[in-house]
Design a protein that fits this description.
The protein has about 325 residues and is mainly α. The protein contains 16 helices and four strands. The termini are far apart.
Length: about 325
């Protein structure tokens, strides 16, 4: 089907330059190919937001991969583009602004699934994990729910071949709701934690999550995911206070949203007030915050907002005096 790119747009205007970039993925030199990949990432799917040119570009990329016409050094980036397009469909499904774009984009991405599947099946071991991550993103779309069982079988096979950390393969399987409870007693702490994050409702999973919070998470597990899970399964802040203090003392300022900041919000469901003395767990948390040099840049408004919402002084010395 012929595409009239002059009637389509990307993040920076009409998509009249998109066909040239797509052609460069097959025929261009290294510089042109790099520019083409940048165009897909920054214009066609800018920061995960699709435009009218996105679905046709997805179909064009799928055709390049299906027919083996994409230059070999672009394949991984093109798979990532397809995975990112799938995540746009998933993440923006309730956003009315994109209601006119998403159905066609979802259809285009779904057509990529049978093309990407054999690229994962026959992947070189050192690329399998990356390729699988993008195929999993595609399969998470609602329209491909009936393909997840076959993909889960493939992921299990890859997880047993030693192609990358097993915990990462379990992360993919967990996204499909595969039962991983037998891995809750795995000797690998990363595998145990991945299984626990899938099975938070299992007492063993809860125990693994709470025990893991005190230490830096194993490779492949983000601290924000562990913090969020611990908050969900804990009866109250007091139960995780000791571990929370460890996080607060080591986290970077960037954890204001999902790391130390989330723990402060959990510890202070109501702002501190002089009429309501600090509990000992709250006091311990503030002490831990005071020890962390990362959190006290007075120009950092994001950190300051966490303290303000908790009713705590923004001054490090004032917090130190508060907790004695």
């Amino acid at each position: 089907m012929t595409v009239d790119w002059t009637r389509l747009g990307h993040a920076y205007g009409r998509a009249i330059d998109t066909p040239g970039h797509l052609a460069a993925l097959e025929f261009g030199d290294a510089e042109a190919r790099e520019a083409a990949l940048d165009h897909l990432d920054m214009a066609v799917l800018h920061q995960g937001f699709p435009e009218t040119a996105t679905a046709p570009a997805v179909r064009a990329v799928t055709a390049l991969l299906a027919e083996g016409r994409a230059h070999l050094d672009t394949v991984e980036s093109l798979l990532e583009f397809l995975g990112d397009a799938a995540m746009s469909v998933i993440n923006l499904s309730d956003d009315r602004y994109f209601a006119g774009i998403l159905p066609d984009l979802a259809d285009a991405v779904a057509q990529a699934y049978p093309v990407v599947l054999p690229l994962v099946t026959a992947s070189p071991p050192d690329r399998a994990l990356f390729r699988a991550e993008n195929l999993v993103a595609i399969a998470r779309m609602r329209s491909l729910a009936d393909r997840r069982e076959e993909l889960a079988v493939l992921l299990l096979e890859w997880s047993e071949r030693g192609a990358g950390p097993q915990a990462e393969w379990l992360r993919f399987l967990g996204q499909f709701g595969v039962d991983l409870r037998d891995r809750l007693v795995d000797p690998d702490p990363a595998v145990r934690l991945r299984a626990a994050l899938v099975h938070e409702d299992d007492p063993r999973g809860r125990e693994v999550i709470l025990a893991a919070l005190a230490e830096p998470p194993p490779l492949g597990v983000h601290e924000f995911a562990l913090v969020a899970a611990a908050i969900r399964v804990a009866a109250d802040f007091d139960e995780i206070a000791t571990a929370a203090c460890q996080v607060a003392s080591r986290d970077s300022w960037a954890g204001f949203g999902d790391g130390w900041g989330a723990l402060v919000r959990f510890a202070f469901p109501e702002p501190y007030a002089t009429s309501r003395p600090l509990t000992e767990p709250q006091r311990a948390l503030v002490r831990a915050l005071v020890t962390n040099d990362e959190l006290w840049d007075s120009t950092n408004g994001s950190c300051g907002l966490v303290f303000k919402q908790a009713g705590l002084p923004r001054s490090r010395s004032a917090c130190r005096r508060l907790v004695g």
